């Protein structure tokens, strides 16, 4: 009976875990067909990192809160970073499946590149 109650308790705990889209390496020119899957225990946020220079992206679970301008526990946000090696867009969000793809990933890449080029995204 004790084992049954433990299995039952664990099954209820696992259904409360965060779910995020998880993609190891994606190409912005190919539509993302990922589905939201369970994150590990302790995951707090979903993250999407877009390399605008290379036209690639990753999506994953994260065990940290979102950070903005070095401040942890920030609201969901996206931050554009320009370095010598290229332009990166990092988005962090709370909630199941919040790092899903827009209707057209290539449209998003073009829009963000254009906005970044004219200085709207810092």
Q: What order do the helices and strands come in, and which of them pair?
A:
Blueprint: H1 2-14, E1 19-21, E2 23-27, E3 36-38, E4 45-51, E5 56-62, E6 67-68, E7 71-72, E8 77-83, E9 86-93, H2 105-117
Antiparallel strand pairs: 1-3, 2-5, 4-5, 4-9, 6-7, 8-9
3D architecture notes:
By secondary structure, the chain is of the alpha+beta class. It has one domain (18-117): CD59 (Ribbon). The chain is built from two helices and nine strands; from the N terminus they run H-E-E-E-E-E-E-E-E-E-H. The protein has a five-stranded antiparallel β-sheet, with helices on one face. It has a two-stranded antiparallel ribbon with strand order 1-3. Strand 6 (67-68) and strand 7 (71-72) form a beta hairpin. The termini are far apart. Mean pLDDT is 80; it is low at 1-14 and 103-107. This is UPAR/Ly6 domain-containing protein. Keywords: Signal.
Short summary:
Helix content is 21%, strand content 36%.
Please estimate the helix content. Answer: 10-25%
Task: Give the class-level CATH name.
Answer: Mainly Beta
Number of E-type strands: 9
Classification by helices and strands: alpha+beta
Low-confidence stretches: 1-14, 103-107
Number of alpha- plus pi-helical segments: 2
Oligomer: single chain
- The proportion of residues in beta strands is 35-45%
- Rg over alpha carbons: 17 Å
Number of domains: 1
Question: Main traits of this protein?
Answer:
122 residues, CD59, 2 helices, 9 strands, flat
């Amino acid at each position: 009976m004790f084992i049954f109650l433990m299995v039952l308790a664990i099954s209820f705990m696992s259904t409360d875990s965060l779910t995020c889209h998880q993609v190891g390496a994606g190409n912005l020119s190919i539509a993302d067909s990922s589905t939201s899957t369970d994150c590990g225990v302790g995951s707090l946020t979903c993250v999407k990192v877009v390399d605008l220079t290379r036209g690639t992206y990753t999506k994953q679970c994260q065990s940290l809160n979102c950070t903005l301008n070095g401040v942890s526990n920030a609201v969901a946000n996206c931050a554009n970073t320009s370095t010598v090696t290229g332009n990166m867009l990092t988005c962090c969000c709370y909630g199941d499946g919040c790092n899903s793809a827009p209707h057209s990933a290539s449209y998003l890449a073009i829009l963000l590149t254009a906005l970044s080029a004219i200085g709207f995204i810092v």
